[in-house]
Design goal:
It contains seven helices and no strands. By secondary structure, it is an all-alpha fold. It starts with a helix and ends with a helix.
Length: 198
């Protein structure tokens, strides 16, 4: 069976294409040409579609992931700001609590001091009343000798108590008479003046 010229030409063309393909593959494998990486890059660009399949995320998924990541960072930043504000507020509350505690301690000290002063004043008033009763029941000269050795404030308080007791009992007071009997005339006159002024 005779082969036509056309068939021979077609066979030769196919053979040439096949040999060229094998040659290119062989040149690429020995590193003379770099056709493989170009084909791989082209294949990767084709795979970067909007709906990529497999393990590789699509462009939409990457964009959504980026948005979610931005939202997460914003949320973290907002939480950090809130935490800083809460820490600052907590510090202010602790400072206010310390101030209130100091005020409370100060008030407690004032209350104790007031109670102590009341006790002292109560004891002092009791002593003044006792001394006034004793001086009233003693002979005037004896009373003057004792009173002359006291401090002026105590003398004034005792004499005033004697005046009050005499007025309450409806009898005349002897305080002016006692001061006239005092050997310390200057002190007696000063006491008399202070009794009229205070």
């Amino acid at each position: 069976m005779a082969v036509s010229n056309r068939s021979k030409i077609l066979f030769l063309i196919i053979l040439i294409i096949f040999l060229c393909g094998i040659s290119l593959f062989w040149f690429d494998s020995i590193g003379l040409f770099n056709f493989g990486s170009k084909f791989r890059n082209m294949a990767q660009h084709e795979e970067l579609s909007l709906d990529a399949s497999g393990d590789e995320p699509s462009l939409i998924e990457k964009e959504e992931f980026g948005k979610e990541k931005d939202k997460l960072f914003e949320r973290i930043e907002e939480l950090d700001k809130r935490e800083a504000l809460l820490a600052e507020r907590e510090k202010e509350i602790i400072d206010e609590k310390e101030k209130l505690e100091q005020i409370r301690k100060g008030l407690e000290l004032e209350r104790k001091k007031f109670e102590d002063d009341q006790k002292k004043d109560s004891g002092y008033r009791k002593n003044v009343i006792d001394l006034a009763n004793k001086m009233s029941n003693m002979p005037p000269l004896e009373s003057v000798k004792i009173i002359s050795n006291w401090e002026e404030t105590l003398i004034i308080d005792v004499l005033r108590q004697m005046d009050a007791s005499s007025e309450a009992e409806g009898r005349a007071s002897i305080t002016s008479y006692l001061l006239t009997l005092s050997p310390l005339k200057e002190k007696a006159s000063r006491i008399m003046y202070l009794m009229t002024q205070l």
